[in-house]
Design the sequence.
């Protein structure tokens, strides 16, 4: 199971929990591109750099209540999600 497949249902539930609490917070998945280390040796074209790119999944948290945007690792999101779940239990 991929990280995205694992996180997606939690994101949906986190958005529902935020809505239940009347919070203007939106959780979503975003991809952060990184260039693999070996691609920085020598000069490469933009096309070559894009081919050597790897992506990682992050969770974007848009907090409209406080006008802030946070970017969390999937691990941090899971920790915070568990806290949210505990609050409604």
Sequence:
């Amino acid at each position: 199971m991929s990280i995205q497949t694992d996180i997606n249902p939690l994101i949906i539930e986190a958005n529902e929990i935020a809505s239940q609490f009347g919070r203007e917070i939106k959780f979503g998945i975003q991809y952060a591109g990184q260039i693999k280390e070996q691609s920085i040796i020598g000069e490469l074209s933009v096309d070559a750099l894009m081919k050597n790119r790897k992506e990682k999944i992050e969770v974007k948290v848009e907090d409209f209540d406080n006008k802030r945007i946070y970017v969390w690792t999937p691990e941090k999101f899971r920790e915070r999600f568990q806290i949210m779940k505990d609050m409604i239990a």
